[in-house]
Write a structure and sequence with these properties.
Length: 718
């Protein structure tokens, strides 16, 4: 009776099924037999549109057990939108005869019982001999999809359409909804097999489409993958025949309980081969990615070394595939063309860039629009933030955390930023690290309007002089060092860090900058300094500048004590940004001098810089005493010596008279110096951070002997 289906535990095996289960396609003789059917000609066609249509048919046709097709209407609509059937009319007209022939081959073998699986597969391979392996699979899948689609369409419409009902009766199709419980394992096995067939076919298509300019097909891993495809194609066609057998068994045949097991066995067999192909495909992609990476880095290097008409090539290569920028604070999107033929500063950093750096750079950007600051000089440039989110950052934080950090920092920036830092190519990140020597600390690469690199790191120049070094070239940097900044004086040390210090530079006013993080030493020092100033009848202004590379919270507590107890002037609260700025300027001066091969032996400014910075690296405090901006009369000492000198003021009081206070202090501290000393110069980062060779010599500012180098590991969450 139509619509009745019987399930037995095990039906007698036909020769077809017996060969199906035991044939071994891995046998060399059989593999040779398979390969001998393959005689591809020059005809090629794009199989991906056909795969899309096959997937559409199979998803709609694969019934759930209440008779409702799997797949949402959203998917159906998406497929209908994406597949323009009219565009492929000619292709399908040419292939229609082949599809019909394959469908007949499968149907005839199934219903006639006149052959086993292997014979059927070999017949199909001979029929498809002129096509590539991926096309063979796609065309066989398409033939099955037509049969399965017709079966599903009739099954779905039989309850509402008289024509479908009559056809179902003549074909003796079972009522799927009525027998859903008993058919459930069969359709589940069928669905899994269809899924793995589609997956392995897509994998083979992907292997075929690998770009030949980046990978050779006669060398592993691609040669290995291609040698594995014929046997995989054989087993995949077997899977398609298994699906067809399952459908055929529902058309007037008794369904065996072993058929679901046989389909599961095929799933396992094809899956194993698919996994091997996927592993080889992964190796292929790694090789391709490596060659593309090398090519990209080569392109970037050539662009930076070859004269260009403008800066667009280098900027587009760095930002590829995006050509959109965002103004951080406003979120306004603009095209990269706004930077054409402009001087561009590429601010390169991780997502750890400190807000102090953003605050100071924002101040510099605001100065560009102030004619009083520019004083008639042409110094216009655009800044672009290029954040580097490498694998370390991706592993350390979740994508959501990295995204939040990026957006938080972006919102603080008044200049251009990239649209999506996570889209920056790995090759660009490697180029920035290896060629421009970016590690962790921010750098600023200066590009002129033609895209030439004026400086691989203009940031130290900017920290020292603001916008004055524009266009941030080596020549401009050297010119500034030879000008008013050639001498160690208060103007170089503090510049315009704080207006109070500038206001103190009056006649007969002495200024003392001091640092360290020992509050007890600070109390003793400030008390003695005030007492000495009163005794010497001079005006002495004290200013605490802190200590570099100490946690912000610790500095905040120390400055709060200094301010509360009125020990001296200092930066407090948000002003601690200027404390950071003071120290980053000194670091930048050291960087600039080291880049020019200056040492304490051959450069007076370098000697004083090294002295102050080495005092900062010690356990004690330190102090610099001077008179005004216009003089280079300065006295510098570490905490122990300067405090002892003040405590013994009566011993050099006479020498300090007649406006010789600074000179007398310096001379007395020199008397207290002993040959024994331990000077530490702690520079953040590595020699490559500073652009220095590993064997760079740094001499002690006290004895001028080469300093030993040690590794220092530091963890300071701020």
């Amino acid at each position: 009776m139509a619509g009745v289906i019987t399930t037995t535990k095990q039906a007698p095996k036909t020769d077809y099924q017996r060969h199906w289960m035991f044939a071994d396609s891995d046998d060399k003789a059989m593999l040779k037999q398979i390969e001998e059917t393959h005689f591809p000609d020059s005809r090629e066609f794009d199989v991906k549109p056909i795969i899309q249509i096959i997937e559409d048919i199979l998803r709609r046709a694969t019934l759930s057990f209440d008779g409702v097709p799997k797949g949402t209407q959203e998917h159906v609509d998406r497929v209908e939108d994406n597949i323009l059937l009219d565009e492929f009319d000619l292709l399908f007209e040419q292939l229609a005869h082949v599809l019909h022939k394959i469908s007949c081959e499968i149907s005839c073998k199934l219903f006639s019982g006149g052959g086993d699986a292997h014979t059927t597969i070999m017949t199909l391979l001979h029929t498809l001999s002129i096509y590539s392996w991926d096309a063979k699979l796609v065309l066989t899948m398409a033939a099955f999809a037509v049969n399965y689609g017709e079966f599903s369409l009739i099954s779905q419409l039989r309850s509402t359409n008289l024509l479908a009902k009559s056809v179902a009766f003549l074909k003796q199709l079972p009522d799927i909804k009525q027998h859903s419980k008993s058919l459930k394992p069969h359709f589940e096995a069928l669905s899994k097999l269809i899924e793995v067939i589609i997956d392995v076919t897509k994998c083979i298509v992907e292997i075929k489409e690998l770009p030949s300019q980046y990978i050779s097909d006669d060398k592993p891993p691609l040669s290995s993958a291609k040698s594995y495809i014929p046997s995989t194609a054989y087993w995949t066609i077997r899977g398609i025949l298994g699906c067809s057998t399952q459908i055929a068994s529902l058309i007037g045949y008794t369904v065996s309980s072993t058929e679901a097991w046989e389909l599961s066995s095929l799933v396992h067999q094809i899956n194993a081969r698919h996994q091997q192909l996927k592993d080889l495909l992964t190796l292929c992609h790694q090789q391709i990615d490596e060659k593309m990476r090398q090519e990209k880095i080569g392109i970037l290097i050539r662009i930076t070394k070859t004269p260009q008409l403008d800066n667009m090539k280098i900027l587009k290569e760095l930002l590829y595939p995006s050509e959109e920028l965002v103004i951080g604070t406003t979120k306004k999107k603009v095209n990269i063309e706004v930077l054409r033929r402009k001087h561009v500063i590429l601010l390169i950093s991780g997502l750890e860039i400190h807000q102090d750096e953003i605050i100071i750079l924002s101040h510099y950007q605001a100065e560009l629009a102030d004619p009083l600051v520019r004083q008639g000089q042409e110094m216009h440039y655009e800044m672009l933030w290029l954040p580097i989110v490498d694998n370390v950052a991706k592993d350390q934080y979740s994508p959501e955390e990295n995204r939040r950090d990026f957006e938080r920092l972006q919102a603080m920036m008044i200049w251009y930023t990239v649209l999506d830092p996570f889209a920056i190519e790995p090759a660009v990140i490697e180029f920035v690290k290896n060629i421009w020597h970016f590690e962790k600390r921010p750098i600023a690469v200066s590009l002129d309007p033609q895209g030439r690199v004026a400086s691989e790191n203009a940031l130290p120049m900017m920290w020292i002089w603001g916008n004055l070094p524009f266009p941030f070239s080596k020549e401009r940097e050297e010119a500034l060092w030879k000008s008013a900044y050639a001498t160690w004086r208060l103007e170089l040390l503090v510049d315009s860090t704080d207006p109070r210090i500038i206001d103190w530079t009056k006649e007969n006013t002495f200024i003392c900058l001091y640092g360290g993080d020992d509050i007890e030493w600070i109390r003793k020092f400030t008390t003695e300094a005030k007492a000495v100033a009163k005794n010497a009848q001079i005006t002495l202004e004290l200013f605490y500048v802190g200590k570099s590379h100490v946690a912000r919270e610790r500095m905040r507590k120390i400055t709060e004590i200094i301010a509360k107890d009125q020990l001296s002037d200092c930066w407090t609260g948000k002003e601690l940004t200027y404390q950071w700025y003071f120290w980053v300027r000194l670091e930048s001066m050291l960087y600039s001098k080291l880049q020019s091969n200056k040492t304490a032996e051959n450069d007076a400014v370098m000697k004083e810089l090294t002295t102050v910075y080495s005092f900062n690296g010690g356990e004690q405090g330190w102090a610099v005493v001077c008179r005004s901006l216009s003089t280079d009369e300065m006295a510098t000492g570490n905490g122990e010596i300067v405090l002892k000198s003040l405590q013994e003021f009566e011993k050099w009081k006479e020498e300090a008279a007649n406006n010789r206070f600074v000179q007398a202090l310096r001379e007395y501290m020199e008397k207290l110096h002993t040959p024994e000393h331990c000077t530490r110069l702690i520079l953040p980062g590595t020699t490559s951070t500073w652009g220095l060779p590993p064997d760079t010599k740094v001499v002690c500012a006290v004895c001028l002997r080469p300093m030993e180098r040690y590794l220092l590991y530091r963890c300071c969450t701020d």
